[in-house]
Specification:
The complex is a heterodimer of chains A (about 260) and B (about 100). With about 260 residues, chain A is mostly helical. Chain A has ten helices and no strands. Chain A is globular, with a radius of gyration of 18 Å. The mean pLDDT of chain A is about 95. Chain B contains two helices and three strands. Chain B is flat, with a radius of gyration of 21 Å. The chains are: A mainly alpha (about 260), B alpha+beta (about 100). The interface between A and B is medium-sized, with 16 and 16 residues.
Chain lengths: ~260, ~100
């Protein structure tokens, strides 16, 4: 089933939901494989926060459409090109150029991505609290508290990695070098985002950028790491153009629901 | 758990105390491994308060606890066994006191 959103605000909410869902799915890959038991639980909590956010957003879109769409049809029965998540969140936990779907996971990549992404989300959820879509504003204010903890958790690890051993420093630096270019997508021009923000009465993404830059720079510097220029290829996940990795994430995530359509659990 | 034994030294143990609501004392709920106090707090939050168990967390290094020796239990605790009069259960409460 291909769902075509007509309302730009709904399409934008799908962009938020898909991003939360895919990062939640990625972080959940650590479940049972965490570096230590305590971090295993922390990552599972983080993943459940993100999946919870995605559910609220999907439910909101489904309720607005009132055409039989459900949170499950949105999460499990759309193809990769219909997903509007940032490319950043679908990447494997690895800095390799051609990592396999089951490649070795690097916790520095996981934490660096969580740091870069949740640093954006504390700003974005804060801005979305004043959306004229009051239901979305309520989701934003709930999610903001979760995002604040995600930043705290990830920043703490980035500091420990950067200012830790030679090996942890090198891995954290490689993770930042690898991931920074993907953050360009936070700010790249997008009619989808611009129109939705205007309709909702929320400031454009450009207004958040100086705050994100300052925050990220400060933490990276504290971690004795070096912030590379975010340049080169600008990903377009939010417009449905994804890396080859999303297909693998979706096939694992969607297979059960597609095998047993309509199943209840 | 693929860490090199040289870099992955065992983190120290911390005891975790959680206060379930304001006005109630912090209760011991378990222990965890963490590199330092701040990390122990983070981890205690993730391990022990996931189901809204708490409003406040204390962590202390397990090494700071001085514990009684289980071998001394006869000397320490046995003498109290036959001194039930130390419980205030032999007093008749006046009605005016109400529920106590």
């Amino acid at each position: 089933m291909t769902v075509v959103a007509t309302d730009p605000v709904h399409e934008y909410i799908l962009h938020l939901a898909d991003t939360a869902l895919i990062l939640g799915q990625r972080n959940a890959e650590w479940c049972g494989h965490g570096p230590v038991l305590e971090e295993d639980l922390a990552l599972a909590n983080n993943a459940l926060d993100l999946i919870g956010q995605a559910r609220l957003l999907y439910q909101h879109v489904a309720a607005c459409r009132a055409d039989g769409t459900t949170e499950d049809s949105l999460a499990y029965f759309r193809h990769a090109h219909a997903f509007r998540n940032y490319t950043l969140v679908e990447l494997p936990h690895s800095t390799g150029l051609a990592p396999t779907a089951r490649g070795e996971r690097d916790y520095a990549v996981t934490m660096t991505r969580n740091f870069l992404f949740s640093s954006l989300m504390v700003l974005l959820w804060d801005a979305l609290q004043s959306s004229n879509d009051t239901h979305l504003a309520a989701i934003a204010s709930k999610s903001l508290k979760e995002a604040r903890y995600h930043v705290e958790h990830a920043s703490d690890w980035l500091l420990r990695f950067g200012d830790g051993t030679e090996e942890s420093h090198a891995k954290a630096q490689a993770a930042i070098d690898h991931l920074m270019p993907y953050t360009q997508e936070f700010w790249s021009a997008s009619e989808l985002v611009a129109v939705a923000h205007e309709r909702m009465g929320v400031a454009d993404m450009a207004a958040l950028k100086p705050h994100w830059d300052t925050h990220v720079q400060a933490v990276v510097q504290d971690a004795t790491l070096h912030l590379p220029l975010a340049d080169g290829y600008v990903p377009e996940g939010k417009h449905g153009l994804h890396s080859e990795h999303l297909g693998f994430v979706l096939s694992e995530m969607q297979s059960l629901a597609r095998e047993h359509p309509g199943a209840q659990w | 758990m693929t860490q090199d034994n040289l870099t992955m030294k065992e983190w120290p143990l911390w005891e975790v105390f959680v206060r379930s609501k304001q006005g109630i004392e912090h209760k011991h709920c378990g222990s965890l491994h963490a590199a330092d106090a701040q990390q122990a707090l983070h981890m205690a939050r993730d391990v022990y308060t996931r189901r809204q168990e708490g409003v406040s967390i204390w962590v202390i290094p397990s090494a700071s606890i001085t514990a009684s020796d289980p071998q001394d239990k006869d000397t320490l605790f046995e003498p109290a066994r036959d001194k039930v009069y130390r419980h205030p259960g032999f007093f008749v409460l006046p009605d005016e006191v109400g529920h106590m």
